[in-house]
Task: structure prediction
Amino acid sequence: MNKILVTGGAGYIGSHTVVELLAAGYEVVILDNFVNSSDKSLEAIRKVSGKNFDFVKGDVRDSVVLDNIFKAHEIDAVIHFAGLKAVGESVQKPLEYYDNNLISTLHLLEAMKKAGVKKFVFSSSATVYGETEVYPFDESFPIGGTTNPYGTTKYMQELMLKDISATSDLQVITLRYFNPVGAHESGEMGEDPQGIPNNLCPFITQVLVGRRDKLSVFGGDYDTKDGTCIRDYIHVVDLAKGHVCALKKFDSGLRLNENGGYFDAINLGTGKGSSVLDMIAAFEKAAGKKLNYEVVDRRAGDIAVCYAKTDKAREELGFVAEKTVEDMAQDSWRWQSTHPKGFNS
Ligand code: NAD
Ligand code: UD1
Result:
């Protein structure tokens, strides 16, 4: 397997994955419309990897763009990162989320079918498990019960992929990410959220670098070791390597169904939970300074504890996350402190 189409390859997880794909010897074509990224991340990929790749600026919902890519390149597999991902925004703009996330996947699958491309890796999320209170989150759990349109688009896409692969030769590995954080250890690329960050770690580094005044810790009265929520933070470079493992899985003799199709869902996490206060301590150590924070009310929709069962990733993909919370904090801080305004610094 050689040439990979990476949709959303200019984004946070996509750009780190492209670096790992190039290092593993794959050729890459990126398709991105920069709705939540810029061409500066492409420059960073070239700099960090020392390698080149093809880039197409366009929308995954555009079937003409897709058909042209599949005509111009012999694509072996697709990794589909492109999508809108802000939970709060999805509540305000559900139509945009259903349109962007569902239509892009449908059009991509149609174009793949036309071109005879069968292998598909999908960016899913731990959010598909909904509000369960049983941990660790196991792939055998029922999914659904999502609490916002973003999460529902991930759930619906998983259902679509399962149904289509059951009756065709489409081969799907859907990867359920836990909480991706960190940055490339070079300090040249990292997370660059537009506007006010929704997620914990970019908010912490923006406070530490002086872009924001104070972190609000959402809830100090959960039934956890220190009262704050527990999450399974995974370094983005580990996560990126998980995608290389998924591609290799396609070549390892999958147990295909009678139509030649395949579907599997696999968690990508560390299996370890860290509290919000654990993360604050790790970032304070990395930055060598205290963080200004205040414990406030709980955020609606948050669950107390979320971490992954990781046995399936190890058994099926040979994947084990290696980097620690300290690595995540150090690498994020290196990126943020040298790029206080992200790629626009
Ligand atoms: P990101 O926003 O940084 O990257 C997504 C990329 O897709 C961006 O470059 C954006 O410009 C592009 N894009 C979006 N819609 C497009 C379209 N219609 N056509 C072409 N390009 C388009 O997000 P990310 O954090 O890298 O996430 C990648 C994927 O992983 C997403 O599907 C996201 O839902 C999923 N995911 C992310 C997280 C997380 O915490 N970051 C967690 C679980 C799952
Ligand atoms: C959120 C999304 C999830 C998505 C994931 C990755 C919700 C309910 N879930 O997960 O669907 O897949 O991001 O994009 O939004 N926190 C603070 N202060 C902050 C920000 C966060 O205390 O300013 C706390 C949260 O309460 C939570 C933890 O930090 O306990 C992590 O939050 P966050 O980074 O937003 O991720 P999740 O909520 O786990």
